[in-house]
Write a structure and sequence with these properties.
Helix content: 40-55%
Distance between the termini: 16 Å
Number of strands: 17
Strand content: 15-25%
CATH superfamily of one domain: Aminohydrolase, N-terminal nucleophile (Ntn) domain
Structural class: alpha+beta
Radius of gyration: 24 Å
Strand order of the largest sheet: 2-3-1-9-8-10
Largest sheet: 6 strands, antiparallel
Number of helices: 26
Length: 625
């Protein structure tokens, strides 16, 4: 795990060093730079040493000095690719470095290299013979890559804070990205909050031709559901065994490291599954598992994590904090974000990463299970929502919304009152907008009030509409899976996981995103993911031999903090003066007043605005080691 930065263009004294220093938290073990003054190419790298401590230094140059690469991530099938490449005549200098596999792999397969990789990555490679840069981002976007291209300059970095160290990076906020931030609660790629800056989308590569200053993007892979037509005699037994085998191999691949490895264990189905498979590959009592909990019961899962840890005989550690104790770290976390993210679970993810990093350098987690196997609560709401939309007239719906809006606000985690109000809000709109509106900080009317201008709903939610409409089968479950996987997961969940873990120098790995597991999930019919309102139907049956039944059938919990209460009792205070121009201070004041008096729950908006305000204001946006 590392941080990468670089640019092509006129050399500016000290820029590559400043860009690299801004990524020190991502790679505290070593740093390196490389320059080609004649071709105006400059690379920088920060290293978190995981594999081949002595031989994996970067930027890495090929033996004939034709190729140079900077790489952030991990290639889990590197050993197999190395064997294949050696069979084709390639000779390696390092013992185990997956970075060198990229150099030889590019030489052998060119721009088709990403199709050969099973892992998480963002890398940029300079090919001197072709006078071009080739860059790529992994299939789901586990590893970030920002870039700016203008007037003969191409600059890139793992985080926006590093890219901002280059003088070509614009400083103007993007109005479109601001709308999407408050419309979704995150900024979907390729958009960025700075006008003219882009995120390379997941599953994409780029080629940059130095001579012509031409930048070309190519999608090499996308998540598309194509359910299999064949069905075994006993699907639960046959498919369950196949899924267990694929998950076991995926976990085993991600246990490979020259540093201590553990598992982030919430006690939910997905993280418990990863711990169960990891325990099969580690001697009893030696697998390290970590949990983070809170003294407020509705936000705490540590008892479930302990149940799983005892069942699997892991070396378990847990840290329990009061929510207010956790909140004291919030200003630091917000200040260190390279781009705003309206997901409050960023805070507990940061705390868990910090706790785990005291004992391990690599941690496996269960991210991806909810998206691939239909685990979120909105999946269960689809059936009732469709019936409601079909039979309840708009006039009656408006009356129901009015009555439900009068229900007292609850500060409990995922309370019934919260779910009812959110669900009814989304049902004001067509089905393709239910999900983003259910989950957004503001509905479209509120967004227009905040920005004091008309809002084009189709522009704000263009990505959600495209994901819904492009589903191969017009099945609401499949359409919902594609929304969560292609949009929410890539631009919210994985961003949160990357930033929270890397702020602490921890590498997080997600076995559910293994190529083989994804291929299985992609072709599993939706009826075997959601059945009669039961989420993760086949996954639960597949895990039955490994985990206690109460763990498999417990209610979905999530990883939250009491943001609503914090704003209600003014533990957190939104300073509207910190918000950027073009955002209505009057709207923000009204939201604060309505929330603190208990008239409504505006915590999602207040959190998103609080994070945006922290991003727009000092202190500096990055911390240097």
């Amino acid at each position: 795990m590392c941080g990468i930065a670089g640019y092509v263009g006129q050399a500016v004294a000290g820029v590559i060093d400043r860009m690299t220093r801004a990524l020190a938290h991502r790679g505290p073990d070593a740093c390196g730079t490389w320059h080609d003054v004649d071709d105006r190419v400059h690379f920088g790298h920060r290293r978190l040493s995981i594999l081949d401590h002595s031989g994996g230094a970067q930027p890495m140059v090929s033996g004939d000095e034709r190729l140079v690469v900077v790489f952030n991530g991990a290639i889990y099938n590197a050993a197999e690719l190395r064997t294949e490449l050696e069979g084709r005549g390639h000779r390696f200098k390092t013992a185990r470095s997956d970075t060198e596999v990229l150099l030889h792999g590019y030489r052998e397969w060119g721009s088709a290299l990403p199709l050969k990789l099973n892992g998480m990555w963002a890398f940029v490679l300079y090919d001197r013979d072709r006078a071009q840069l080739f860059g790529s981002r992994d299939r789901f976007g586990e590893k970030p890559l920002f870039y700016v291209h203008c007037s003969g300059t191409l600059a890139f970095a793992s985080e926006l804070a590093a890219l901002r160290c280059h003088p070509a990076t614009p400083t103007t906020l993007s109005r479109t990205a601001l709308k999407k931030y408050f419309g979704y609660g995150y900024i979907p790629a390729p958009h960025c909050l700075l006008e003219g800056v882009r995120q390379l989308p997941a599953g994409h590569s780029f080629s940059y031709h130095l001579a012509s200053d031409r930048l070309e993007l190519e999608r090499y892979w996308e998540f598309v559901l194509e359910p299999r037509e064949d069905r075994p005699v006993d699907p639960i037994a046959t498919w369950g065994e196949e899924l267990r085998a694929r998950l076991s191999r995926a976990v085993h691949r991600r246990l490979t490291a020259d540093v201590p490895v553990g598992v982030l264990l919430s006690g939910g189905i997905d993280s418990s599954a990863i711990a169960a498979f990891a325990a099969q590959h580690v001697p009893p009592g030696e697998l390290a598992t970590f949990a983070m909990g809170f003294t407020e019961r509705s936000f705490d899962e540590t008892s479930w994590a302990l149940t799983v840890a005892r069942h699997l005989r892991t070396n378990h550690r847990a840290e329990v904090l009061s929510p207010d104790e956790a909140g004291t770290i919030l200003p630091e976390v917000v200040a260190r974000l390279d781009q705003p993210l309206g997901d409050p679970s960023l805070l507990p993810t940061f705390l868990l990463s910090r706790f785990a990093r005291r004992h391990v350098t690599v941690a496996l987690g269960g991210d991806g299970g909810d998206e691939l196997f239909a685990g979120y609560d909105p999946f269960r709401a689809l059936g009732p929502a469709r019936q409601y939309a079909r039979w309840v007239p708009k006039r009656i719906h408006a009356a129901i919304r009015y009555v439900v809006a009068k229900l007292p606000v609850s500060h409990r985690h995922l309370s019934l009152e919260f779910k009812l109000k959110r669900t009814l809000r989304g049902l004001d709109y067509p089905a393709q907008l239910w999900l983003p509106v259910w989950m957004s900080p503001l509905d479209p009317d509120e967004l227009a009030g905040l920005l004091e201008e008309p809002v084009d709903i189709e522009e704000v939610y263009a990505e959600a509409i495209e994901s819904w409409d492009r589903c191969v089968q017009p099945d609401p479950v499949d359409q919902t899976i594609q929304f969560f996987t292609r949009l929410y997961f890539a631009s919210d969940v994985l961003v949160k996981l990357d930033r929270a873990s890397m702020m602490n120098g921890l590498e997080c790995r997600s076995p559910f995103l293994d190529n083989d597991v994804v291929e299985f999930a992609r072709r599993l019919p939706s009826a075997w993911k959601l059945r009669h309102g039961e989420t993760k139907f086949l996954l639960k049956r597949a895990l039955a031999p490994l985990l206690p039944r109460p763990v498999l059938h417990r209610a979905k919990h999530g990883f939250g903090v009491p943001v609503s209460r914090w704003f209600r009792d003014e533990t957190l205070v939104l300073d509207s003066a910190s918000l950027p121009p073009g955002v209505s201070h009057a709207f923000a004041h009204r939201a604060v007043r309505s929330h603190t008096t208990g008239a409504a729950d505006h915590s999602a908006f207040l959190w998103s605005a609080f994070v945006l305000g922290g991003w727009c204001s000092p202190p500096p946006l990055s911390f240097h080691a």
